[in-house]
Amino acid sequence: MVQVKKTTQKPQVITLKAVAQYLGLTPGTVSAVLNDSPSARSIPQDTKNRIRNAAQELNYRPNFFARTLRNKRTYTIGVIAEEIGDSYSSPIISGIEQYLRHKDYFFLTVVHRHDQALLSRYSQLLSERGVEGIITVDTTVQEAPMLPTVAVAGHKKLKGVTNIVLDHQKAAILALNHLKELQHERIAFMKGNPVSSDSKDRWEAICRVASQMDLQVDPELTVHIDADDPTPMLGYPFAKQLLARGKPFTALFAYNDISAIGAIRALQEQGLRVPRDVSVMGFDDIPGAAFHTPSLTTVRQPLKRMGEVAAQSLLDRVEGKKEYPSEIAIEPELVVRESTARAAQAC
Fold first, then answer.
1. Architecture of the domain delimited by 16-69
2. Which of 2, 246, 250, 254 is 20 to 30 A off residue 96, Cα-Cα?
3. Which pLDDT band, with edges at 50, 70 and 90, does 247 fall under?
């Protein structure tokens, strides 16, 4: 490591060379540390600390284009989402953005709304634009990708894909055990739209756990959501369908929080009180769940954290830090609020 003459005056133009001059080190030494290159391993830790502290003090920002040309990398990730502003995808993408920003990566986001032709085209377009990996959100990956891929709510096992999945078995246990403890036996259910990547696994887990708990899943008290709507209208008409059948129930387990909120509106219009007449349980714990009236009991999946985990897992692969796991399981949590109570007379 070569020492050079140190200047005592802060540079006006904050380049890598200026940082090196400020510290009295060579540009190569500073570059190795700030770019975390293999050659930095031989540099003493106290020197590394001095370099990083000085870069922060001087507000040094690396030249992106020089970095790209030097390393032959784009430091760009592609994000493929079903929606971008809905209550499910938005916090996940926020977690992705927060982690990538911290690591000085860009990301490009595309929205497919379950159009398979568009989905295939977007994958190719992102690849052509030089992204180094892809994160999908609520999107079923159909074939092994050419680039490292992490799928949030991915369930299909494919080579090259890491699936970030919620433990739906545990989620079903938490939800149904809560309703059973409140003495609910006649429970209505809303099944998710098949285009949602979680729908099949979540429903199978609910049916399996209900059987183990001796809770009946009555087809007459089950509706299948076939709409694709990011608003409470997702659940409203299907709750109306349940009520029109005239079969009594004391609790409703909705596919997600948005459909649960829509269902509460339909129940209230029928003159039913939540939770006194009917308890309602959601799934996800979206930001609005705690502020709805009544506040929503739900199964929480940490959506923002899932985005962060997805981004970290992908960068670990892109940067060759470790072998990729085929699956990363996320633990759910029961959040009890005002929308559930002990079973009363059936509606």
1. Orthogonal Bundle (1.10)
2. 254
3. very high
Task: Please give the structure tokens belonging to residue 287.
Answer: 């930001």
For 180-236, how does the pLDDT look when each residue is reduced to its tens digit (9 = 90+)? 999 999 999 999 998 888 999 999 999 999 999 999 999 999 999 998 888 999 999
| Token pair listed for 152 | 């949030």
Single pTM value for the model? 0.76
Ramachandran quadrant class, 65 (left: phi over 0; alpha: psi -120 to 50; beta: rest): alpha
What is the Cα–Cα distance from 193 to 221, expressed in whole angstroms?
A: 17
| Side-chain half-sphere CA neighbours of 45 within 13 A | 0
Sequence-separated (6 or more) residues with CB below 8 Å from residue 246: none
* 74-166+303-330 and 168-301: identical CATH topology: yes
**Which letter, b or e, does each residue of 73-111 get, where b requires 16 or more Cβ atoms within 10 Å of its Cβ?**
eebbbbbbbbbeebbbbbbbbebbbebbeeeebebbbbb
Statement: residue 9 has pLDDT above 60: no
Q: Is 313 helix (H, G, I), strand (E, B) or coil?
A: helix
Structure tokens at 212: 């183990």
Confidence of residue 347 (pLDDT cuts 50, 70, 90): very low
Superfamily per CATH, domain 74-166+303-330: Response regulator (3.40.50.2300)
pLDDT in tens, 317-326: 998 877 788 9
Q: Are 76 and 128 in contact, with CB atoms under 8 Å apart?
A: no
Q: State the helix-helix crossing angle for 168-181 and 199-212, rounded to 10 degrees.
A: 50
